[in-house]
Amino acid sequence: MDREFIEKVRQSVDIVDVIGRYVNLKKTGKQYRGLCPFHKEKTPSFYVNPEKGVYHCFGCGASGNVFRFLMEMEKMTFTEAVLELAKEAGIPIPEKVSGKGEQERPLQALEFAAEFYHKMLFSQKGKNALNYLKNRGLRVEVIGLFRLGYAPPEGNALVKAALEKGFTEQELIEAGLASEREGFVFDQFRNRVMFPIRNIGGTIVGFGGRTLSKDVEPKYLNSPDTPYFKKGELLFGLHEVKNNLRAKNVAVIVEGYMDFLMLYEVGLRYAVAPLGTALTEMQANILRRYAKRVFLLYDGDEAGLKAARRSIPILLGAGIIPKVALLPKDEDPASMVQNGKIEMLRKVLREAKDVVEFLLLDERSRSSDPSVLSDFINESLEVLSNTSDEVYLDLLLRMFCEKTGLSFDVARSKVNALKEKALSQSRLPKRRQQQDVSRLISGEFRSVAWGFLMPEAREVLLQLRTDDFEHEDAKLLFQSLVDGQGVDELMAQASDSVRNKFARILTTVKKEHLENEKILENIRIFVNKKLAKRVRKQLALAKGNDEVNNILINYEKLVRKEGTAL
């Protein structure tokens, strides 16, 4: 992808605005600070530097630029992140960087698999799977829109078709489409209805599959974790309904793929579904970008109620206002739609309980036993203490105290103590993390980093070779320099270790440093020492005077500074 285009996109978007859609940022000096979206913390350690165009968390070490942030939050590739922000900024996308030809091979394999499964659904082999979907109430139009499919029962149907198409076994394994056992490669999914899972950019990154065999467990199977697919960081259906969520500022969380699809079928097109797991902090942070109010519409059984209880503190911590829609016992959203209970479903959503009302459904809230009531109050205050919005927290505590008779001062004191405890627990690891990262940045790494910031330093450094370096991260950074990568590409695509170290350096560099001749002089000395070391190694291995003479001649050509000694 053209570097000028990448740079134009980066300069056209406000990193504070983009990250601010996921994180509550507050200005502190020249930077912005907030709670890190990549790990759980109670005190902000996540900083955004708009001048440098980077973010860095001093707690977990996460760092990068605006492209990297979008890649992490939305599970996008680098190309997808650049194109998404280009569209947002209204920058015309040149045909040569449309991204179609740059898609990585495992992602191409996933796209091929989706087409293969979809065709299978409408073949004779997929007859039972298609009947299952139709009997649940899905129209062919919706089946086509979401590209639902069928994985045949043979052990290698997809693998065979993909190999004939030019994909390798390794690419299929990397995409999570195949597994290897005892030297044999076989399909990951067999005899299952297939649900393609897209990232926010619309790229298929994995699948969910529902078995059609009564004696096969698990009933639902997801793709294994891959660089593109992590089930705790994706939401089924979000790509298709994200504009509806933004328009309404409301989202409904349901438990399963069929719950989502059945709601979509009847026009309730602002739902999303976790991928068969409990709601995660990452999913809540992603959802907050599109909606501040969320309805939990889980199954009407004890498991559904437990899932709601687990989800509430996560949503409160993400700055979301949650409500719980209580379904009748043994009902789920899909069954209610299928049984024609759509109006009842709408009524359940209208009558959804706010957080305090839901907590008070616990029968212990009505106990006359002080010890039982005390346990309930303490547990409830712990849930409420997760609320990141202080105004909303104040309102929730007042409502809770009014219903339970608890003194507001006591409730506020307890919540403050809970917040302070969580805060103090996160401080020590954070300080250690900061010290460890700084200590692990080698002199080699720091020297190469200047090559990305000063053109003159880059020219001097390129006299070296990768094998002149001792530290692995310095070798990786130098290779990026040799490959002609710029800061934008490095901060988006480098390994976590390289990116985090480079970000620490970048945030300390001032404008006047870039014009400091002393730094350039130090780089020349560093390079000359490396060249001298290389020559010493070569001389130690040299055989005969002719070879020694050739080594010395080559060394004289490379060294630009007089007085360098071997």
In short:
With 566 residues, the protein is an alpha+beta fold. The chain has 26 helices and 16 strands. It folds into five domains: 95 residues, DNA Primase, Chain A, CATH 3.90.580.10; 125 residues, DNA primase DNAg catalytic core, N-terminal domain (Alpha-Beta Complex), CATH 3.90.980; 113 residues, Dna Topoisomerase Vi A Subunit, Chain: A, domain 2 (3-Layer(aba) Sandwich), CATH 3.40.1360; 61 residues; 119 residues, DNAb Helicase, Chain A.
- What average pLDDT do the residues reach? 88
Strand count, sense and barrel status of the largest sheet are:
5 strands, antiparallel
- What is the CATH homologous superfamily assignment of the largest domain? DNA primase, catalytic core, N-terminal domain
* Percentage of β-strand residues: 5-15%
Distance between the termini: 42 Å
Number of helices: 26
Looking at the structure, the CATH topology of the largest domain is DNA primase DNAg catalytic core, N-terminal domain
Assign the structural class, choosing from mainly alpha, mainly beta, alpha/beta, alpha+beta, or little secondary structure: alpha+beta
What general outline do the C-alpha atoms trace? globular
pLDDT < 50 runs, ≥5 residues: 428-437, 560-566
Name of the CATH architecture of the largest domain = Alpha-Beta Complex
Q: Fraction of residues in helices?
A: 40-55%
- In the CATH scheme, the class of the largest domain would be Alpha Beta
Strand order of the largest sheet: 1-2-3-4-5
Secondary structure tally: strands: 16
Rg calculated over all Cα atoms: 28 Å
Structural domains: how many: 5
